Structure formats: C-alpha cells, structure tokens
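Usage example:
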Amino acid sequence: MRLSRQVLAVLMATLLLAMVGCASKTTPEPAPVVPPPPVQAPPTTDVTQQPVVRGVESQPVQSGPVADHQAVAGLERIYFSYDQFTLEDAARVTLEQNAVYLRSHPKEKIVIEGHCDERGSDEYNLALGERRAVTAKNYLVSLGIAADRLSVVSYGEEQPLVAGSGEEAWSKNRRAEFKVVR
Amino acid sequence: MRITRRLTALLLLAGLCWSVTATAADLEISAPGQQTIPLALTRFLPQAGAPAPAVAEELNAALAADLDLAGLFRFLDPQAFLGDAGRIGLFSTEVDFEQWRLLGAEVLIKGAYSVQGEQLTVEARLFDVPNGRLLAGRRFVGRTLDARRIAHAFADLILKELTGEAGPFDARLAFISTRSGHKELWLMDVDGNNPIRLTDHRSIVLNPDFSPTGKELLFTSYRAGNPDLYRKEIFSGSEARIASYAGLNIAGRYSPDGSTVAATLSRDGDPELYLLARDGALRKRLTTSFGIDVDPNWSPDGRQLAFVSSRLGSPQIFILTLADGATRRLTANGKYDATPAWSPKGDRIAFTRQEGGRFDIYSIRPDGTDERRLTFGPGNLEHPRWSPDGRFLVYSSDAGGKKTLMVMRADGTGARKVTAAGGDASHPAWSPVW
Amino acid sequence: MTAVRPLRPSSGLHADPRAGRFLGAYLLSLLLHALLLLALTGAWRGTVPREDKPPVYYIDLVHKPVLNPQAGRPEPRLPEQPVPTPPAPVASVEPKATIPAKLATTGKPASKTADSHVSDALRKLRDEQALQQKFAALRQAQTVPMDTPVGLPDAKGNEAGISTNVYVQATIQQNWALSPYVLGDPAKMARIEAWVRITYGKSGRLESFRFEKESGDTQFDESIKRALVKSQQLPNPLPVRLEDVRLIFNLKQLNVLAELRR
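Running the assembly step on the lines above writes:
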C-alpha cells in the first residue's frame, strides 16, 4: 500500500519534475583548474596592533567588622533533621528553657542564627537556615517573648559547628543558635 | 531531495528525455576521516633582542592548553617537525608548506617575540597548510607579565578563524576563595593565573555574578551581619550595598541587558524571587509559593527565569515566564536539583543534581527534553556556569577534600582543574571577553 | 407505542457511491500503469530508500583501484572454530518452573522454601542453557563458507582490488579533517550537506572540482576544499577516468556515533 502511494506520487509529480530535471541538466561546464593557487597574504594589512589589557589592581584594604554577637550560658542550641525546619520535641523543650532565660533577662536582644549541614546547594541552604531560625523565633514568640527582641539571620552551610563529613558532624551542624546582641 | 532525483531519472527513462545518459552513482562521504584537525604548534622564536625562553614557554604552554581544551585539534608531535619549525616565517611566502604537508598538518601556528625591557611584542600567525595561505595574524604588544594573556587572545582569534566564533579565553573568572582566611571575592585569568583579591570584608562573601559588560560584579556578603547584596565596579573598586532588606538578600543575577537584577529576598517572611533595579530598588515580587524559591537565572533573551523551588517538596528547577508569571517545572527525574545556568545561546540549561549523596552536573533543553548527565564525580560538582561563547562550563569540585574550580567542554569532556593552590575556591563566574 | 423503524445506514458518508468507485478505478489504473512502467524500465530498485545500505566496511587503501573488483569479504577469515554445541530447538520451559517462587511459598511457607530454591536454581540453569543455544544458532547463521574470496561485498568482478569509486571516496574521506566542535550545534550537524562535482583523470590527478551545492557553513565548506586539495593526486592511477562525479559530504555517520556514545 505504501509502495503504491509512492508510485502514485511519482506519477503526479512527473510533469513538474521533468521540467526541473531537464533544467538542472543544463549546468555549466566545470571550471578546469582545481587547486586554488596559494594565496599570498598581504604582509601588513592582516596584522594589526592590539594593546593587551592591563591587569586589575587590588583594592585598598577595608576593615570589615562582623557584628558582635555572644553565646551565653542560658541559651542552648536546637537541632533539626536533614532538609527539615520543623521543631522536634527535644527542640521544643530547649526553646522553652531559652524562653525562661529570656524572661529573666528582659533587656537583652537576641539574634537567632540558622545553620545547615554541608549537603545541598548553598543558596537553598541559606533559605533553609533562615526557615529554621524563623521557626525557632515563632515558637519563642508563641511562648510570650516579644518579637522585637528577636532577630534572625541565616548562615546556610557557611559556618559549620563541627568540621568534617558524616552524620555525626552533620547532625550537629543542622542547628539554630541564640546569641545576645551586645 | 534524493527521491526527487530518483523521480527525475525515472521520468527520463519513461521517454521524455531519452537523449540524456545516466550518470554514475553519487559518492557519499558521511563522516570526516579525521574528527580532529591536525595542528602543528611551533615554538615561538626570538625575533629581535635577547631570547627569553621563559616567555616563549609561557606563550606556547598557554596556547597549547587553550587549544587542547577547545577539543578541535590533534597536536602533531614537535619531535617530528622538520627544518621549517626552526625558522621565523611570518608570511606565507616564507613558510615551506611542503614540509608541513608531509607531516599531515592542516593548520600551522608560528610566532615570534621580542622583549625590550618590560615590553613584550609578539607576532603570531595561523596558516592553512593545504592551501598554503595565511588565515590570521596579529601583532600583540604588552608587558612580559602579559605573555599568557597574549596567548589567550591569540587562541580566541584562532577559534574565531576556524569555527566562526571567537573563544572565551581572554576573559576572567570571578570566584570565592578562602585564601586570605575568609571567604572573599577573587578574580583571575581563565587558566587560573594572576589571582587578585577584590574584597576585604573579613566576613563571608558568596555567589558572584558579572554584569553583561563585565565591568561590575554582584555578590552577597555578611559584612554587616546579614546576607546583603553588594555591587562592585571592578576597575574603580567602588562598592555599594544595594539590597539589605530584612532576612536574605542572595543569589543576585543581572538581566542580559544589565538593567535589572533578579534575586532571592525573604523580606516578606519567605524566600521568594524579586526583581530589583540596579541600585537595589524593589521592582516586583515574582513568586508567591510557600516554599523556598532561590537561584534565579535569566534566559539569554531576558524573558524567562530558571530557578529552584521546593514548592513540590524537594528542590526542583522551574521556569518562570516574566510576561505572564506562568511557571512550569523543568526537571522531573531528580530528587534534588539546584543552581540552573542558562547557556548563552539559550539552547541548554546546566544544573547540578544530588544523587546518592553527591552532586553531579547535568544539562537539559529548556523544554525539558534531552537531559544529559555530564559528570560522574569524583566529589561534589556544583555551581556550573557557562563560558560566554557557550563552549565550556566552569564549576566547583570538592574532590579530595579541597574545593577547587574545574573547566570542561559543554558535553562533559576535557575536564581540568583551573585554580592554583591555596585555600578553597568555589562559586565561579565566567566574565564576558574583555 | 410507536413502531420502531428499521435502522438505515447514515447517508452522509456515502453521498455519491459512484464517484468513489470511479476514483478507485482511476487510482487502480494509475497504479497498474506505474507498476508496468517500473517493471519495464527495471527501475524498481530505484524506489528502495537509500537508508538500506550494506554495513560499512573499512577499505584497505593499499589495494589498487581496478575495473572489476572481486566479490567477497572485506578481510580474510580466521580458521573456523567448531561450534561447541550443535544448535537445538530451544527447550520449552516447564510450567512448574514458571510459577513464581513467592506464590509457591504462600501456602506452606516452612516446607516449600527449600523446594522453591531448587526450582529457582533449575529455572536459572534452563535460562542459561537456552541462551547458550541461541548464541550457538547465531554463530552458525553468521558463518560463511571458508572459500569465500577476499573482496568487496557489493562487487561482481574477478580482479583483486577495489572499485574506482570506493577508492576515490575512501581517499578523500581519509583526507577530510573536521571536528564536531567546529560546528558546535548538534541540530546543524544532523542536516548539514554539501555537493561537489569532481573529475579525476586516469593518472589519478584531480582535474576539477566545483561546489554544486554549498552547505551554508563556511567552515564546513573550507574543510571540504582542504580535503580535496590534499587529494589532488591519488597514490595510484585509476583504471578509468572519473568524469563529473557527485560527491556528497555530510555528517550522518557522525550523528549516529554521537547518539551511540550517549
């Protein structure tokens, strides 16, 4: 069936193609000589001057103060599961103890740092760390701590507590820390 | 076409053009016998002044490395070179092409240099051996320290001549290094030479991106205690904090026309994508999903953004059309996909995927078809970014415990290390050609 | 209740049955004429698509180009090794063995476990045997009698050597150097093609070439020109003059390789 359709198409196209076919036969005679003669490059026009970009100079040193935050005895870290930002029971207990400290030091302002383990993409972990910090903050607020005393910053995987790979290091690095702003 | 010709022949036979004789069958050559171009790279020779073998060595080594990475060539063994390799031949009349034809060379690179004090002048030539003609020639003038950069510029020219598109070697890589003890922003040549530290924040600097002109860099820094977006002019050194909203100000990327910046902010409580003006003024919020939306990356036409979102649970790559805000999922096969990078030609998106606890680099068409795995370890291979011509990918590797930068061809072949020793290097970005 | 009318075929599809019949007859007539024409001209083979090419062999360029190359195999065969086991019909697997082990053990787990292990091992053995027999049959099928002469698969003559066309084609192909990285774009590689008309004299000298159809890619065309310039003198003279033969340059095989490499 396929073949017969092909044949049909053959006949249909016949007349038109005949013309095309005959026309294409009238190609001009091939040029006699083949290998192009070696082209003589114009000696100077092809060569141009091009200054090379100068190197970039190093910048003047600027001192970069990192905000001064301090860990204190009454505020303990909380830990999270891999790729999670929900609070586990142990974390809730720790947060309740931290809330007790915060109530007894009503003048102190706290920054909550969210951290991740080294696995995962950097930017995603920055976002995940922030989620961890925000979850901790929200829980503290629900325990009656004024929200304006609590700020949040994520360090993603940039500041591991424990160096190295393996679940032991990772589980310590998936954390939120509570530091007093001095 | 073929069928057409068959039909024509049929017709002729059927009696309309009896006079035409049948021609011999066509000869079809459906692959080149050599899939690399035989290249003779001769040593650069002293032209005037005292010979400086160290300079010649730098020129030749840098040129060979670039051309090798390009993947086009098969280098002919210099041991086999005949007398012409020892002569300066800057014009086609001065080159004995018969010698090179004998060796099977198809292209020939010759060069001469002269050192006068600190000034280095290099004459570099590319010849077509079968036709015996000059394909490209340049005179470069610079400092002796610039020898490698001169070689890179000539390599770019060679690729331009032989492929129609210039190479990306006379460019810079911006990256993050801990060489000074902190994560700072650095700049170096594409082959890892001439590293220069650009920031001194003594904090954490992350994720640089070049402006389309290559004159500015965008990056994230914790200098003020919060991850904020900074913009730095490379030549003047002036620096400005452009976005310091509450929460995250990260992953800034210039739009292809340089007028807009896409970034992730969490000022509204959730990490979402925003468009900012160049000075950081808020233009538009792009995403509203509950879920982490990070790592925006522009399509070359500036109409779409690839980004990472955890809206379906694990991080996946999505594409957002700016005109109507429509979002579609790009990758479907991975559990953890991140850092999309749209190729400069727009034909592919490179990204990194975590599988079995390790990241490897993949690429996919923007329509979600033809996904290819480009790397197979070792270590975590992350942060892929394209060279400005789309030929190569630069990425970071932590194989062996130390973070280094690597370059490979876009098809995953030819991978090699680029950073020099000292500190961890990550987050590369390839500048436009300078 | 109303009487149910007998169902009639919908008339829409067969508005004018005679017209359809006429068209059918017309088409049949055309078909028969076409078949006749093809049979007469012997051009039937012409409609076979070109894709059904014989497998590609590497041609030894040392061989002289001759007029009537001998038929046979491209390379001499090694002495035949006896097939280890004669091909036998594949043994049908017993129904018992096809019962999944899990199903068999559900009834009485304790007593049936050992049984299922045995049947598993048995099935594995049978599968292995069946596979070996298939391989043996395949080897047998591929075996060619020892006395087949060395030559070209599609040749018909009796001279030791290769045909002029193949010789010229292989020489030019050897001289054609083009890296896939020159073109870069795989989509472009799939469709790029250039046609060149060449004339070789009997001395093996390329007398002329001209591009009948350029590929549109400067680098691709330049690489072809270089290949032709490199092939302007063939290592051996030709038995006949090659007059105005069309050479088709494309990258179809390269694409196949690229796909396989994925």
